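User: Hey, my collaborator sent me this sequence without any context and asked if I could get a structure. I don't really work with proteins. Can you help?
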Amino acid sequence: MDNVTHSLAGMLLADAVCVWRREARVPVRAAASLVSALANNLPDIDIVYSWLGGPKPLGSLLHHRGHTHTLLLGLPMAWLLGAGIWRWFLRKNPSAAAPERRLLLGLALAGPLLHLLMDFGNNYGVHPFWPLYDGWLYGDSIFIVEPLWLAISIPCLAPTLTRRWLAVLLWGVLGTVLVLCWFLPFVATASRAAVVGAALVAAVVARSASARARVGFALVACASVALLFSLGSLRAKAELRRAVVAAFPALTIHDLALSPLPANPACWEALVAGEQGGTYRVLRASVALPPLSAVSCRAGADVEPTAPVTSVDRANYQGVRWRSEYRAELSALSRLRQENCRFRALLRFARLPYVNAAGTIAGDLRYDRSPDLDFSDVVLDGAAADRRCARFVPGWAEPRAELFQR
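Assistant: No problem. I've predicted the 3D structure and written it out in structure-token form, which is a compact way to encode the shape of the chain:
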């Protein structure tokens, strides 16, 4: 998730705990909000060193959501953060005692857990249990910036803030989100109305309800959004699997990667990784759930990738509409993995790898959306002065090891 959403999640958690404890002291509430917001962003400290990995963008791909996004490192870092905030708070408030210390340390330790859970929600992936398990885990449920969460949390939090500048900043963020939702073409009209409606309801609740009702509404509403998208993902995957079996009966399915459109649990962009007769195939489709029809869901329709794709000549299957397909020989990709160190490093990240027709660029079809170099695209054979291999390659399990480690 984006860092604004992570910060709001931490602030909302701190607000809920303080309300539950009936904590009214402004310094304590401010310190709780600060430590929780920082702890919920702490795992993203990996951006400080992600450039060390070598040729761009391999360092970022391999180290973002890396070791700091694991329980092994995330929790100790959070404890240190909490201990530091506690000492700072104690100097300013000498009468503070064990209850305040437990509050700050508890919120600090909860931060990385909530951060990892939220990051798990989208299709980028996390591996929180390293080194016990070094594979990627994908939730495939939430758009990377979900406007419904922002529309619920900001009106519930902003009126409680004692720092006027921070409240103004949050209202500005919400205004920007509403404007973007209204003008971005891939946000449906019903989704725009849902975001505006959620913001209005949250504002009314924050203005008229008690503190407990306000935080209760915010927590239940945010959890309901997550549950709604999670159930939508499960149903969309089931529909997609049935469509693949009907249209491509000889294809062995290895993975289904899904992402919804913003504030729209009924419209999903889907990618299917499979194998057929020694050929690696990745199918792109849109999946519409009721009340939408296949033709009314345009997820993935605007993609013009670097990967050499062809259109798919198959009829719609219920809510599934086929968009395009990428094909490559498994033997050729396995050989490239052995011979090219950059491609081999990329496979530690790429869930749906591809190589362009010239064999000079590789990337991940999840994020290959334009003919230009997208953030996951790697130049395989750079200039003579820049043919470096990636350094400090972490030992993440290759998502498609079953296909390319042969």
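In plain terms: The chain has twelve helices and eight strands. You can pass these tokens on to your collaborator as they are.
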